[in-house]
Amino acid sequence: MFPRTIHPKNIDKGCSKPVTLAAPHSEEQLNKIFDRFDSNGDGHLSWEELRSAYNILGMSFPGLRALKALRVADENRDGYISQKEFIKLTRKNPRK
């Protein structure tokens, strides 16, 4: 089969420039991002809040992405991602 090219949403498919990763966010920036999606202000991201966040960001399959995020980041298995778990997740190297 031919190699498959993935074109992320919101990026011009005709763009010849390579996509570069943004610089790491500061903890303050990450806290603001977390607070933006913590719609009920309880200090945790539920499946519903994660699904909504992925939907707002224009991601495909937001419900499935939310389930995967919980599986990866919810270290204490309480069904929510705490702010501490969120910060820790964003600090992980995705290539490891």
TrEMBL record:
UniProt xrefs under InterPro entries: EF-hand-dom_pair (IPR011992), EF_Hand_1_Ca_BS (IPR018247), EF_hand_dom (IPR002048)
Q: Would you indicate the residue range of the signal peptide?
A: none
Which Gene Ontology MF annotations are present?
A: calcium ion binding
* CDD domains the UniProt entry points to: EFh (cd00051)
Superkingdom of source: Eukaryota
All copies of domain EF-hand, residue ranges: 25-60, 61-96
User: What PROSITE patterns does the record tag this protein with?
Assistant: EF_HAND_1, EF_HAND_2
Q: Which UniProt keyword terms apply here?
A: Calcium
Annotated Gene3D superfamilies: EF-hand
Q: Report the protein name in the record.
A: CALCIUM-BINDING EF-HAND FAMILY PROTEIN
Name the source organism.
Salix koriyanagi
The organism's lineage is: Eukaryota, Viridiplantae, Streptophyta, Embryophyta, Tracheophyta
